[in-house]
Structures are given as C-alpha cells and as structure tokens.
Amino acid sequence: MSALNPSLPPLEVRPAQDCRFDQVSLGEIMLRLDPEHNRIRTTREFRVWEGGGEYNVARGLRRCFGLRTAVVSALADNDVGRLIEDLMLQGGVDLSFLRWVPYDGIGRRVRNGLNFTERGFGTRGAVGVSDRAYSAASQIRPGEVDWEHLFGELGVRWFHTGGIYAALSETTPEVIAEAMQAARRYGTVVSFDLNYRPSLWKDFGGQSRAREVNRRLASLVDVMLGNEEDFTACLGIDVPGGDPNFASVEVENFKRMIEQVTKEFPNLKVVATSLRAVRSATVNDWSAVAWSPGGFAQSVERPGLEILDRVGGGDSFASGLIYGLMEKGDLSVAVEYGAAHGALAMTTPGDTSMASRAEVENLMRGGGARVQR
Question: For residue 243, which of 96, 249, 285, 332 is within the disulfide window of CB 3.0 to 4.6 Å?
Fold first, then answer.
C-alpha cells in the first residue's frame, strides 16, 4: 500500500451549517456500578456512572470536543432510568431521541441494564458482570425510530454505532441496518466499532452468529474500528503470526489484516484500531494506527502508560479519531487525537472522558504531567 498522504481527505463530511447534529450514536446506556478498588463480590458500596460503548463516543465528542451530539436509545421509566438520565444530562448529549418505556413493576418485560465493573489492579485484571437482558434499548424494533426525520430533515454529519448493540437482541441488528441505510441516503458518514464481547454472544449463537451479523452490517460502514480479536471474531479475518506484544510486529499484523478487510469490504474508507499491550491492569503500552486509501498513520507510542480505569479507553479513542476526521480532515492528525484522548480517559474513573480538548492537544504536542498552577 502507498505511503500516507496527509493532504488527502479520507471522507466527505456534510457541512456543519447544513445539519442540526455533528454526531449521533445508537446504542444502550447502562448504569455502571463501580466498587472502585474493591471487588464486586466483597464490596459494601458502589459508585455509579452512566456508560455504553456507543453513547460514550457521543459524550466524548460533546464534553471534550464541543460538538453537537445526540443519542438514540431507550430506558425503562423508573427511578433507575431517571438516575441514568440525570447522569447523562451532566454530559450534555441531546436526549430528544431517548424513548421512555413504561415499567412493568418488576422488570418482567422491560428494564434498565446494569453493569458491575471492577477496575483491576496490578496482576488482577478488570472484571465486568453485566445484567442487561430485556433492557428497553435492546427491544427497539425497526420502524420505531423516524430516521428520515433525523437524517433527512434535521441533518446529521456522522452516525456511530457498534457490535455491542448489535449483540443485544434479534431486533437490534435490524435497527442498526435500518439506521445505516437511512444515514447513507443523506450523505451521513457511518462508523461502526466491532467491539466483540464473548459474553454477549455466548447464548446468542456464539461466534458464528457474531460473524453473520457483523459481516452484513460491515457492508454499510464507512469507518470501521476494532482490534485484531474484533476483526477475527466478528468478520472472520484471521491474520497468522499475531504477537500479543506491543510495537512494530502488531502494526505489521494490522496492515496485513487491513489488506484482507478492505478487499472483502471495499466500501470502507477508514479502518482504525488502538494498540494495547497489557503489562498489568494498571500499566499498559498504548498506541493507535489507522488506514485510509492514502496509506497508514500511526500515533505516538506511549509505553508504560499508567491507568486508573481502562473502561472506555477505546470509546475515547473513537471519539478523538472521529473529531480529527470530521474537523481536521487528516488521518495522521485524527489518529493522534484518538490516541491522546484514549490515554487521558483512562486516567480518570468511569466509562466516559473527563478530558478537555486543550488537555488532549497538549498531550499531542508532547506535554507532560507537571503540575499546572
């Protein structure tokens, strides 16, 4: 493949003045219960956050990068749902397309998803236990969202969703496909994070079902995100000689993988991944790489990155990358925004970013961790 030409815009993005929203996400928002430095099975108290792979991207673009974002989702109308709403209101994401579903009293037909997540420390890895069956978001069906109004009348520059939402029910892949098709009709860029979670597919057809669903959706995507495991599990792209260690070997594997992915899905205009080597739960090597028809771009490597809470690091990488592609039109700049934003997001608790754009850009320039006064 050719060397990267940073002057070659990888995407055509609708002008901001023609659209109500810069970016819209489709996905489930859960209540995360965080035992902080304790264990789920022994703690006596939890701290709560809102979070969801697709929503986290919209929140990052709103709070860190100042873009106009919205989320399409649903919540059961009870006090847990209202708590999630209260947390989301602090994030500034437009909730006009959040549907409230009447609660049946005990969650027999509809409920809100819960996500118990340990951060991990040292040799003890992070642990996630989700409780999300029959969630309101998983029960959205085709025809229930007016995509023509959203993409056609209001206007959206960028639409994002992912493999987590696709795994939640029989209907969610159909809702995703419906949304993607409408977005493409109106010139909205479509991004998709493969985000393979074995636990979500375990009782839902396993890896074969994951591949069937994700391969069908991949044909409607402009920007694809995922790591080696995601591409193998979700698309059946198997790159021999994978190395769990950080640096050039993994980058070369990514390049070989992209050759296969783009051959099978020529509609893809950008493919990107964060590169993570886990030294311990609290120290990772961190970088990122992306491809467009102009070639490859790799971010600065951050070996030995100290981590407080790794959850949401990949989502913050995605929001930084999207910001760079939308606002800068330069793949090499976009991958630096993504890698820096992801690194900063993992220094704070919770699923979502607490970084500012100034902090991201300072890190991109090589700024350190000296005290600011």
Answer: 249
Question: What is each CA distance from 282 to 116, 147, 160, in whole angstroms?
Answer: 19, 42, 29
What's the N-to-C CA distance of the chain in angstroms?
47
pLDDT tens track for 329-367: 999 999 999 999 999 999 999 999 999 999 999 999 998
Q: Decide if 16 contacts 157 (C-beta within 8 A).
A: yes
Tokens of 218: 């991949």
Cβ atoms of 132 and 108 within 8 Å: the answer is: no
Give the residue from 234, 212, 225, 233 showing the smallest Cα distance to 254.
225
The rounded distance, in Å, linking the Cα atoms of 57 and 85 is: 17
How much is the pLDDT for 372? 64
Q: Which two tokens stand for residue 283?
A: 């120290």
Report the CATH superfamily, name and number, of domain 19-364: Ribokinase (3.40.1190.20)
pTM here? 0.94
Share of the chain above pLDDT 70, in %: 93
Q: Name the residue ranges covered by the structural domains of the chain.
A: 19-364
